[in-house]
Structures are given as C-alpha cells and as structure tokens.
Amino acid sequence: MYGIIATWRMAFEGITAGREILEDGGFAGDAIENAIREVEDFEFYKSVGYGGLPNEDMEVELDAAYMDGTTLDIGAVAAIKDYANPISIARRLSKEKVNNLLVAEGAERFAHKEGFQRKNMLTERAKIHYYNRIKEIKEQEIKPYSGHDTVGMVGLDKRGNMIAATSTSGLFMKKKGRVGDSPISGSGFYVDSKVGGASATGLGEDLMKGCISYEIVRLMKEGHHPQEACEIAVNRLDKELKERRGKSGDLSLIAMNNKGEWGVATNIEGFSFVVTTEHQEPIIYLAKNINGKCIHEKANSEWLDNYMKTRTAPLVRR
C-alpha cells in the first residue's frame, strides 16, 4: 500500500508527480520533497515559496519542516530568506545529529554552506499584493493578516516508510521573525511509521496551543481511524479555545495511517485537500464541519476552474 494526503488544492500537481515515485517503489521522502518543491516553485501560490506573501517589512520569510517516521529524524527551518526550496534544506537538516531546527541567518548560513540555491523570493506580484493591502488597511481598516495556507503532506511508501512535511510563507504582513506552527514538531506536523502521520494548516498561533498533529497521531495509536482522530482533535481544540478565549482561529488537519487510510477535519468552510493511494488517482476534495463531523466531496470543474483563474488573474496596484 502507498499514498499521499496533502492540504489545499495547490498540492495536486506535486502529488500527481509524487505518486509516480511511490508507484515505482520509491521512497516516501523523495515523493514528498519533490511534491512540495512543485508548490514552492509555482509563483501564483502566494502562501508558499516563490511568490509567497511578505512580512510587514516586505521580506519573504519562509518556514519548512521534514520528518521521517521510521527514524524519527526531524529537520526544520524558520524565517529563512532568499533560498528557493526550504523543504530541501529542512530535509538536509534532518540528517544532522544536532542543530535540526535553524532560524533566520543561521538557517541561511547553513543553506549557503551546503550549496542550496539562493534566490530572491519576492515577486512583483507579491509586491502588488503588499501595497494593495497597505492601502486597504488605511482606507477600510482591514486586518493585515491574511493568507496562511501551509502546504502540508503525509506520505506512505510500499516499504512502510512514512514522511510528514510542511512549507509556508506564514501570515501575510506578519512581524519580522514570526514563526507559526508549520516548522514546530507536534504542532505543524508529526509522523511515526508504526502508526501514521498528521499535518496542519490554519492559524499557527492557535494550532500550537493544542500540539494538534501529535495529538492526532496519539489518537491513531490508541486505535482511532484517521478520520475519527482528526475530528476528535480539531473539535476538542476548537471548543477549548472558544471556551477559554472566546474564539478559535482556523484549524484544518490531514492524516494518514500506516495502512493508507486517511482522515481530514476542519473548523472552516471550503478547506480543500488532495489524496492519492494505490487504488486512487489524485483527487481534490472540499471539506467542511457540520455539527462536529467533517463532510467532504469532490471539487467540481467550476470550482477548479475558478481556483486557478483567481490565482493567476492579472493584478493592478490600487
């Protein structure tokens, strides 16, 4: 059995290519890294990699993480600038015995030493988004933070190896140096090849309050199906945050166990995700929460067409 599950429609092309690696008996780590690099390199996805939306100083700071569920090796970078594929840097760090999570200048020095590609990750399109948001904030009192769609994946290969990984540019117009859940083990991701893995997307500050990816893996270890585990963890954290703080940020989780079974839960409308398994070509689904149950259905052609049209439409500075 093999499979990959990922957050958001933007993962579709990457997962399609990653599935070929798994079909040929390849390692889940290669499939996941290549799949996430596809997302990082596509400039029209404004929450990951090249074209990612900048912080309040108009700098693109990127976070990424990689975890091997067989060895429990973890590598991560946070607030790294001017490097093309943070997921690959994170994977390289997972091979180190220590210094597995590097941030900002330290991460950049490591990437330079290891020969990773330097690249200005701020696109002209992202600059237009930035200047338009500045104007919206002044004229309409719109909150600056928007766009925190982490690409997160969990993969299983034919040999039973499982990998979890993430990549994101974080909150639009975040404070310099801000780090969310994505590169934090147990919050943005967690995987154990003996059990399964999970990955998160949404408001990192709230996702971290529940160590929610680890919680889902723990629930699967207790015998819960991935769907049950996701729903239990998301509903509990959403309820807890609302009781203690009056509201909850966006919480969306994906999971897959070591049998290739998968699950998804969210507290928002219109969360999209992609799944492929040995018996299923990549499919894009839309999910929503109805009375604590996650309902998902295949995205129709109208939604898919609108998705790409919206993201690739010409921009004008207002």
Automatic annotation (TrEMBL):
Pfam families per UniProt: Asparaginase_2
Residue ranges the record marks as coiled coil: none
PANTHER family the record matches: L-ASPARAGINASE, N(4)-(BETA-N-ACETYLGLUCOSAMINYL)-L-ASPARAGINASE
Protein's name according to its UniProt entry: N(4)-(Beta-N-acetylglucosaminyl)-L-asparaginase
UniProt organism field: Clostridium rhizosphaerae
